[in-house]
Amino acid sequence: MDASKKHGLAQDRQSTSATTDDVVSTAREAVRNAEQEYERKHVETQKAKINLAQCLQAHGDFEEALSLSRTVLSKAQDTFGPRDPETFSAMHHLTVLLAEQRRTAEFETTARTLIKDGADALGDNHPIVIKVTAALGLMLRRQSRLEEAEKLMRDAFEMSERSYGSNDERILESIDELARTLLLRGKVEDSESAVEEAELMMEEALDASERLLGTDNTKTNWRRAELASTRLFMGKTHEAEELMEGALQRYRESLGEHHPDTIWAQAFLATTDAEIQDIVKKSAKALHDGLPRVNVMITSLIDNFTDQGRSKEAEVLARAMLENSLRDHGNDHSDTIDQREKLAALHQRMGNLDASSRQRRMALQSRQRIFSHNHTGTIEAVDLFANVLKDQGKWEAAETVCWDFFAVYPTPDQPNHFALALMATHAIILKQLQKYELAEKIMSEVLRHRRTMNGNDHNLTVWVVAWLGGLYIEQGAFSQAEPLIRETYESKKRVLGDQHVGTLIEGRRLVETISRRTIASEDVAFVSDLYEKFAQIFGHEHEESILLGQQLAILLNKQGKSDDADALIATVVERRRAVSGDHNLATLWVISCQLGMLQEHRKYDEAEPIAEGLLAATRKIAGEDHLTSIRAQNTLAIVKLHRKALDDAETLARDSLERSLRIYGKGAQETTESASTLATALAGQGKFEEAETLLSTTYRMGKRRRGGKDEDTVELMENLVHVLKKAGKHGEALKWARKLYEACQQTLRDDDRVTLRAREKVECLRGERQPGGEGDVTVPQSVDDSTRGFGNGQSNAVQVVKLLDPPAVLARAAAAREIPREEKQDLKGECPDLMWIQKLHVDLALSDSKS
């Protein structure tokens, strides 16, 4: 740019600034004249002050503008009374300033007061009431409170129709806003009916606009273009192009080739790269020339280019918008901040996180300088900056940004939408940093306010409930997760219907939590019904159907219906092979599920070669250090334990543990699983000290990282109690048994088998009773009417062998919904219990070595 042009631009900026200053000065003079000619509380004086507040707002003097507007309202209430039209007029002007400054909490409170009191005093068809109702709906729409926004938009439309009639131009705007709200809800909630209603409303608005304003009117043409855009979204490409071609022709005739609206219509129909580049050049020139509606046009183009994947073209226009605002207004102006945030969002979507982070930081700093710290725009800017840091992997820096904000602005009793969004972001960051208790506390607070503010079935509330459920699942606290996941499922079923994809997916998440506890008949019925819906909608070979079929097989097996489970899992394996092929981790995962069932049915001869093949295949596909390979190796170690190959089991488990420690760390779930298996192998060989040290150390690390409430930690504690008891450390065993029982009560249900066993352990170790004394210990009857009974005449050794490794008995007992009492009294009077089916009881290895 040459020197003369730079000088000209500088003069333009000075001229614009001087003009704005002149307007403010003139408005101040008008207030002084009104106060001298009338009096301070006269209507004309109040009008002059309202005009000054609007000029200050346009000049960027937000605090003074707001203070003056509040003063005008206060004096109007004192002078004319709270129900006078002049008072409502002053309140209306205050809501306008609050909305423009995005002070959403105060705006919503003031607007709702005006709507309620104004409807009583002026009637619900008064223009002020209609305007504020529509403005509140628009604000709620920006906050994604779409259900509330739609209701207000409908109210505004109906009031406009009653007040103005169907042949008045003013009704068109209410139709437009209702249609946009419906369209947005349709996009967000994937609601076809909402989109179709939006299209009908837009057709009605276009017909009315052609009738009232004329076919070639600019506003009519703009509504024609908006309808075309909606039809393109609906997939009605031919109808959309036909409408837009008509709009483009009228734009050219009435506005000219280089008008922003004409350029926008050309962009809609452009298909080649050359046409797109021409649009970008024309848009940049229109922006530079300051043509009317150019900002609206370019913002729409940026959105369209972004949706089309034309990020470079969108970035060129976004950068031009920012540079134009910097030239006209300077760095700390609301328009400049908005343009900077739009460019940051585009950079973030393009994956240019460093550039996005820079723009977010500068936008936040500008907001902090010109707005208050608790301004909703500032809160949102903090949230956006923390999110881009999160996307960069700078979790600690993101956490610091959140803490810095809340240190200055503690969470109020009734936080607004933006404060809740920031709190949710903070909880997500804390979860990533494994600060689970604090994350849970913050998100639980968000949930409490969301229920109050939005209701239980609002999508934002449902998202928080689902997130908390996922947090508990990640910690292994499935009993705490289940009611939250169930609530999410029921909410989606009420809102979306029981056959909607979102409802079905949430149903499968619920099945995952159900499968972690004792299975009831109604659970299997629920999963069977869900499986049929998946198969009906997606087909049997769809990914979701295969996953749910696998889960159903696991539940059937847990309920003791082994034949049905074996048949279903075999079918699922074949379907997975047909879809994914043999050399795929998803296929191997289903095979590992089948392998687990073989173990539960004590078919160790069949399980061992499958486990060895599974380990070899996972290592070949994913590598030795992949999570799947580590778990496959641990599974093979468990099979070796059942096969009495304790040395092989120890070698495999020790190697699995070393890999888990190196890759996932001391407190990870994978490390806990490997440590528990290795400890079982060590104890089976009489290496109690090493097993005890391993288990206690792993427990401490797991508790520090996951909170000690997950099922893997509970299982590890159960192992530790057995090891201490076998090592003769009954005092230590009792202490850990009490810890185990407390953990079970927090993590599992009271009727869960592990909880019942933990209670038995405490009672036995305290010496309050010795189960298995007088009388027979009878195992519940199985589905095939076979029974096992043991009397006192049998030797203790025989009872040990028969009672300590009875997976088939457990499966049949589960089918009968009874808890077997696998207790015995050996020569030392000790009280053994059963481990999980996947783990080998220490006593089994000991009894084998003794025999």
Automatic annotation (TrEMBL):
Coiled coil: none annotated. SUPFAM superfamilies: TPR-like. InterPro entries: NLR-like, TPR-like_helical_dom_sf. Residues 1-25, 766-792 are annotated as: Disordered. This is Nephrocystin-3. Residues 15-25 have a biased composition (Low complexity). Pfam families: TPR_10, TPR_12. It comes from the Eukaryota.
